[in-house]
User: What shape does this take?
Amino acid sequence: MDILEEVKERLAYFNASVAHVHVETALEPDAGAYVDELPLDPKLKEVLKGLKYARLYKFQEEAVKEVLKGNNVLIVSGTGTGKTEAFLIPVLQFALKGERSVLVYPTKALARDQLSRVMEFAKGLGVGVAVLDGDTPREERKRIYSDPPEVLITNPDMIHRSLTLSPDFRELIRGSKHFVFDELHVYEGVLGSHLRMLMDRIREFQGDVQVISSSATIGASPYMFEGLFGLPGKVIYGSTRRKGTAFHVLVNSNGISRWTLSAFLASFLVNKGMKVLAFVDSQQMAELTAKIAKRFGVDLEVHRAGILPEERIKVEERLRRGEIPGVVATPTLELGIDIGSIDAVVMAENPPSYSKYLQRAGRAGRRNRAGYVFTIMGEDPIDSYFLRRPEEFFNRKLSPLPFDTSNLEVVKVHALAFLLEKKAERLEAFPELWRKALLLLEKEGVVKIVNGVVYSTRKAMEVFQRSSLRSSGPIVKVYHGDKKVAERELPVALYDLYPNAVYLASKKTYVVESLDLARLVAKVKKVEEDLPYYTKPLYSVDLKGFKELESRKVYNLPVKYGEVSIEISVRGYVVHDIYSKRERSAGEFEYDDPITFSYTTKGMIIKHPLLSEFSLVDGIEAYHATEHVLIHAGRVVAGASLTDLSGISYPSGHVVIYDSSVGGSGVSKLLYERLEDAYEVAKDIVEKCDCEDGCPKCVYDPYCGNNNKFLSRRKSLRLISEVMKGEVPKEEDVWGESVR
Assistant: This one.
């Protein structure tokens, strides 16, 4: 508590304050059966007792028994409560019977990180364990294929590529009976869609395998399990909280830059002798926060996607060995990679979802040490909402994973991969959605269909080699001279790599010289000095097409959900001063020729009423503000991140909210299903704000394409209040020009 008092004192220098402290204490999960009472091989019982597992927790016992019966299960229990043992014990029992299990971890780094833990259990049993991924040497691969281990550790990317390219790998995978997917919370959005298609390929659509999965932070259901794996499954719950004690602190930034406060707080804690992990959700903000920390006298390393894998691995190793005091990371360090004991976590912003909050918070205070978790709350609508209701922040329900199994961009990747594996296949052998994807691939010249049989073309292997499970959109490569320094997926790349944008990579500052969308290449030049400003794009978005999939009434409003065709035009950029107390624009710059990108995704259209007292400008301000605040509300009711959803508003009252990723992520569908709840949260935001008529605490959006013009909190409140009465008159469906 002395640390918290010092933090309060130091934050006062910035006119910031500790808004709320939540103390988390959790006891051991309920006790279950003794190991000797379980239906396990005597050798396995002796190994477990030798590792101090004389008795299991109740949820572990239930999981072990269900898995040994051959049932599919999802194990949900808090960090450090023993999820790994719950699936590893039955996997080792299967191994002693000669049955092979595949342990699938979401990343190569995490898979290799878990090897020593699995070996600790397996070494006394004579059970074979091996890691097979892109880094496995050729001789080791040959040994694995000739003498397969009972426990194989790999990752989804390896399965995706090797099912297509390696007959030996196919035999190994399809000869396995049990598949374990750990850290299941990672498989949201596009990655979740890829996982479902990958499981269809593993099973060849109808094969019989057993699936075991686990997560510390997930809102689970049997319906979600079946959607993700294509098989029925049972959910087993352990403790909802991690073991141990943690102090969770909400910090009111009071308008001060969150990056400055986070850098200061991380630096202060490091100087108090703590090992610190600071989280941000933007690659560019990770670089910026590390730069600011250096001004406070502490050199924090950066760990994020987009930099070279060997650089990330080096940071992990140095942090684990205690050679560096702290790291600024994007969600790349949310997972359970061993980085040693972390004393404190600093979150520069309220994480995208409660699941991610718990995952990040769980990195602090492991190994029976109290942890400190600081979250910087800014002036945005959701942070203001939770500062008014801090206990609600810590008592939220976990949302189910959002993913869209009908994402055709994802299905195309796997339909092509499966076809290349089979060489040729009758079109009717594929499921209906896969057939639709193959017809699209035929139009693109990637496959050809002759007399009902699908064949690949010369273009097919090239397209497959470019495919990725981590994205659904095209990838832009970033070059400094001839050296690739980073890469970004479209459409997000448009918002980072527009001409004259300040782009940060590996704590180096670059300015974008050009962006070539045809070649998917961005050229940057290095700037030796630290620039005192950063940039944000000015852009407009328009709806080019909509195909309705379903519809419903929300407070008597007509709402449609379906496939959305979007066109983005980046027309310039805004300059912001890094060190100003408030994030104000220092100038706008327009291009002669906008940069445009079009894609198809999923989303909804809401038709709001045209209120009689509203002029045309009043309506524009009301609909635009309501679009923003509904997207903000999606963070509470649908677990959306800041960049998961985008929107457009029209003077006609139409508001379009859609998934930002190509093909769709499932987040807008979840918001569509919970739209009544979203209006409740939206009303609270616009009703409780104390600004005159619009500010960052209510209706401003940091990603607004027109720099937050044409917004009114009061008119949005008037509109939402009228909508929630449920007495909306029927009107003609007339459209107008988009505001954003």
